[in-house]
Amino acid sequence: MEDKNYKGIIEAILFAMGESVELEKIAGALELDKKKTKALIEELMEEYKDPGIGVMITELDGAYQMCTKPEMYEYLIKIAKQPKKRVLTDVLLETLSIIAYKQPVTRAEIEKIRGVACDHAVNKLVEYNLVCELGRLDAPGRPLLFGTTEEFLRSFGVHSVDELPVLSPVQLEEFKQEAEEEMRVKMDI
Questions:
Q1: Is the pTM of this model over 0.85?
Q2: What CATH class has 6-78?
């Protein structure tokens, strides 16, 4: 191995790209194997734990991104003059959870679960970059398939959708009973 500043190169790549970069691509740029590259990134991640450093490297589903530490956010707000905050209403959160747990999923499947049209909610989630189109279902009409994005992972502080909480069968049964009760109330009106 030549005497290259691999950590500096990794920092430059992650800083300049601004978005997450797959381990494979970083390894290719360094001309190292993935195992050695991952070890170098993990060393950098440890170094960035120093409280005197304002950035960190986060792993997002096998890719890496340089970002600001959460405790620095208040200072960024002072510079950015309070960026517009996204508001996730109950409808958006409900739609987002369906997409996160059922992905890839079509609008029709979301509407079947929610019982109401979801065009506005899905469009808003796409606008917020929490959801994206993953392709089309190989079925009549070729409906669009939706799934979550890396921004979703960052926003909810998880590295992968596999880390999302799992509902117990008891909770599922309670939710089912609540939904059935809501349907009975709506039908009585």
A1: no
A2: mainly alpha
